[in-house]
Specification:
single chain, two-stranded antiparallel sheet, mainly alpha, 4 strands, disordered C terminus
């Protein structure tokens, strides 16, 4: 299990699961730091699955045109959804206060009205 408060461990997890190249490492580090949540003890908890999902979402190399009629893409939609689901589950399970703008949502997905302590969606169990 990842120690979500360990910056290097989370950076390594992101690198392992995405295989990002060193040219974008500074962007990955910014994403990891800016999307970090605070737990109930005000300890920074990094959110690697949000970072992974966003990297995959923005990576054109993983997208393939599947339908020119109404343009639909295949490729990384399911893995992106899965990583966001994992992150939402962790955010909810641990009650992390997620920074505004970093909710674990798909592009175009609306933020539901939740309690004031979190911006994550409470619908996933993490095992």
């Amino acid at each position: 299990m990842t120690d979500f408060s360990d910056y290097q461990a989370n950076l390594d997890l992101v690198k392992t699961l995405t295989g990002f190249d060193e040219a974008i490492a500074p962007n990955v580090e910014i994403y990891l730091q800016e999307s970090a949540a605070l737990d109930a003890n005000q300890v920074t908890q990094f959110r690697p699955y949000w970072v992974i999902a966003k990297l995959l979402e923005q990576s054109s190399q993983h997208q393939q045109l599947s339908n020119a009629d109404g343009v639909g893409f295949t490729g990384m939609v399911r893995p992106i959804e899965s990583y966001l689901d994992i992150q939402r589950g962790l955010d909810r399970k641990y009650g992390w206060a997620v920074p505004a703008g970093f909710a674990a949502l798909m592009v175009g997905e609306d933020l539901p009205i939740l309690n004031a302590n979190t911006t994550s969606i409470p619908n996933i169990s993490v095992y």
